[in-house]
Design brief:
mainly beta, Immunoglobulin-like, 4-stranded mixed sheet, 8 strands
């Protein structure tokens, strides 16, 4: 009976999505390539002092982009629920800043 009550209580608890953090530095992403599971919240954390605007160039789903920001902190967070390969760039530094995310 106790185990049954525990199962009922736990079934009402929403589990938090797993998280992965990408550092947005002065003209680089760290890591530049990462694999995550479907449903992961990918957070982009600005660490440098230059202005960046993150844009999804390739991948499933709709448009993903940040505002142009220079201040430190998380300025973009997105749950990636569709499997596939995603490519992100900084629209200000597209040749230097490229990120490949694989969602499995």
């Amino acid at each position: 009976m106790v185990a049954m009550l525990g199962a009922i209580v736990l079934s009402g608890v929403a589990l938090a999505a797993p998280k992965a953090t990408i550092t947005v530095g002065n003209n680089f992403f760290s890591p530049a390539s990462k694999t995550v599971t479907a449903g992961t919240q990918v957070r982009f954390r600005w660490a440098g002092g230059e202005t960046h605007k993150i844009v999804k160039r390739k991948g499933p789903g709709g448009d993903v982009r940040s505002a142009a920001k220079a201040s430190k902190g998380v300025h973009l967070a997105k749950v990636l629920s569709k499997r596939g390969e995603y490519r992100f760039v900084c629209s200000f530094h597209p040749t230097e800043m490229r990120l490949k995310l694989i969602v499995k």
